[in-house]
Amino acid sequence: MLAFLRFFVMAFVVATTLYAILWFRYRALRRRKILQDWKEDHSDRNLKTFIAEETRRWDRIRHRNLIVLLYLLPTALVTTIIYLTNFH
Questions:
Q1: Does the keyword Transmembrane apply (predicted)?
Q2: Which residues does 12 contact at the CB level (< 8 Å), separation at least 6?
Q3: Nearest to 30 by CA among 3, 70, 61
């Protein structure tokens, strides 16, 4: 049981590190694309307002996707493997 807990603590640390790296990387890429869209659109909105609105919208989507991919999916997979290995 202690090894199980230690594994999940280490997995949480690794997942959190990956989350932070991917969050900032995808945010920078998306911000660059939003800036290109603004330049092509020649929108009458202010650049800062346009970037803030679009970034806020994409941050919510990115947050959900990263949580599922980095926390929930691996935890469910490892828990399933442990269960099938030990109790089946």
A1: yes
A2: 71
A3: 61
Q: What is the pLDDT of residue 20?
A: 95
C-alpha to C-alpha distance for 44 and 58, rounded to whole angstroms: 21
**CB of 71 closer than 8 Å to CB of 58:** no
* Higher-pLDDT residue of 47, 77: 77
Neighbouring C-beta atoms of residue 70, cutoff 10 Å: 20
Mean pLDDT of the chain: 89
Q: How distant is the alpha carbon of residue 18 from its chain centre?
A: 8
Predicted local distance difference test score (pLDDT) of residue 43: 66
Contact between residue 11 and residue 75 where contact means Cβ atoms under 8 Å apart? yes
Q: Please report how the helices 2-41 and 47-67 are oriented relative to each other, as an axis angle in degrees rounded to 10.
A: 150
DSSP state, residue 1 = -
